[in-house]
Structures are given as C-alpha cells and as structure tokens.
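Hi there,

I know you've been waiting on this one. I reran it after we fixed the sequence typo, so this is the corrected version. Both the input and the resulting structure follow.
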Amino acid sequence: MKNSIGVIYQLADVLSYGSSKLEALGAECVQLQCFTPELLTEENALKVKSSLDGKVRISSFWAGWSGPQMWNFTSGPSTLGLVPQSFRAMRLKELCKGADFAAMLGVKNMATHVGFIPENPSTEAYRDLCEAIRYIVLYCKDKGLNFNFETGQETPVTLMRMITDIGEDNVGINLDPANLILYGKGNPVDALDIFKGRINGVHVKDGNYPTSFYNLGEEKVVGEGSVNFPIFLPKLINQGYTGDLYIEREISGEQQITDIKKTFDYVRNILGSNA
C-alpha cells in the first residue's frame, strides 16, 4: 500500500490560511498540531474540516498543553508533558479537550509528548505517571481514538515498558526518528525492531546527537543528519507500516518551505526506489 506523505501543520495556520499553503507544499495528508487549548472548539473543528475537505486529508491530531516548556535536559524533566505533578491535572484536562477535538475532526489518532518517563519502573513516580496516562488512554478509547506517544524523551525500551504496563489496545507510537537522536536516546533503525506493530504515525525529521550534553542535538534538513533514512524508511515499510509520513522542519520562513519541498523529493525518491 502506498504511504501518504504530508506535513505537520499548526491548527492556527489552517484557521488563518485554509488549505492554500498545504496544497502549495504538495501535502497529501496533515497532522494538525495545537498547543493552545482555547482553539479546540466545535466551531474551529467545523471550520478546519470545511477548509481541508477534498484537498488535504487530516489523519492525526497532535495535542499540546499549556504551561512552561523547556526543551532541554536541565529543565525539560520538570516542565514537559505529564511527568511534572504540578501541571499534571491541568494538562490531563487539556489532553481530554484535545481528544474531543480529534473526535470532532473525525481522525483516528491523537499524539503528544508525555515528558521524560522515569527509567525505574519500581518507583512511585513511574507508577503514578502510568496511572495518569492510563486515564487519558481510556478517555481516548471512549472516543474511538488511538493515544500515541511521540518518541524522544525516553529510550525505546522505557517507552515500550510503559505501553505494556498501561495494558490497553489503543496505545501506539508517533515515531519521530530524529528525536531519538536529538535526545540521545536511541538509534532509529534499531528502534523499529522494538516498536514493531505499535507505530501509528511517523515524523520525517533529521538531526544529530547532542554535543553539549545539556541541550538537545541540532535539527537538520532531512538527509543531512544522523537518521539513516535510506535504511530506516525501507525497513519501516518492509515491516508492514502502511500509515502516513509527516515531514517536520522546526525552523520558520522561506527556508522551512524550501527544506520541506526538498524533503518531499528526497522521501519519494527513497520510496520509489524501494517500491
């Protein structure tokens, strides 16, 4: 089956510009992302569906959350996702709102970062986090949604341990191969063997390993970083992945557009040569 190639795109931009920029990029599908819970209304869901209907397929919703966000190794563990207890209750409510919005859009998959999952499964911190995530997983299940962990802030083994302990059949992975490298947590090609059968979405993003050891590695245009896409993508497809591929480039302006278009060609070349 042909894998659709699309992009990650901000909900606010669709509300502002409709489908025009997505169509100009050549996106076949989109993973909508939003870190502003106030935008997650029924009115906006209807507006987005009307704007994209018949033009670009919405296949996933990436639900963000409010509060401090420090994307590094020093403050990240205490600010990101559901791991910090001081923000957990608020963010669980926001993720439930995200699930409601995903259901309004008619998609099957919702993804998010849950934060730096504790490595030690014997700790109270790990057990409490597991129960918190199970709550949102069951909420998604009632909505007919998969809850997908975005990779990066934990090793593949730690993530699969958490998924196993949650024990529900609607839990999957939104695989960002670059994040495994940017956070120094694993090799994306090897991780495919660990994640096999659980992958419900894939980001096409590249980067290098950390060099300062306090900050994440540097994101790069796809094909210029340490993710071995000529090996990674064919292995992913050969394992039976038939889902969507979302190009992500975390810069802004004209260079972002140039890099995304370049990545479309790069990915199609790999998939075409391995069809």
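Quick highlight: Residues 85-105 form the longest helix (21 residues).

Best,
R. S.
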